[in-house]
Amino acid sequence: MNDRKATLLEELGRLIRTDSDVTCEPCDSLALVLQFDGPSSTGMSGYCFVSNGSRPFAPDSNFDPICDLADELYELSSAEGRPLQSLLVRMVGPDWSPAVEEEFKNRNRWQVTPANLDTMVESLRPKPGGD
Description:
By secondary structure, the protein is α+β, with helices and mostly antiparallel strands. Helix content is 31%, strand content 27%.
């Protein structure tokens, strides 16, 4: 992973854990899925997990900082000749370091739909000590 990408991912993790406009309600872990259709066209979904369930990740007021970082990640991957289609970011407390999976072929790899809601959300759940 190049230095700029690592910096952007660390910034994404910092935003999610500390920015009052972005932070979700207290949880044990979090999964965030970013889907890309091109520059400045990012879909986003995510879940906050607690021991007895999950709830959608919904920043208090502002998705813009996450979308701005996502746009930079997309532009960086495009410049490298491998435009991102989707990105899965998993974070587990207490350190909240992001673990990332990139998808370059299937934009919908981690998409949650009514048909797969229960199984997909659970498959996104970060595992303590690694994915």
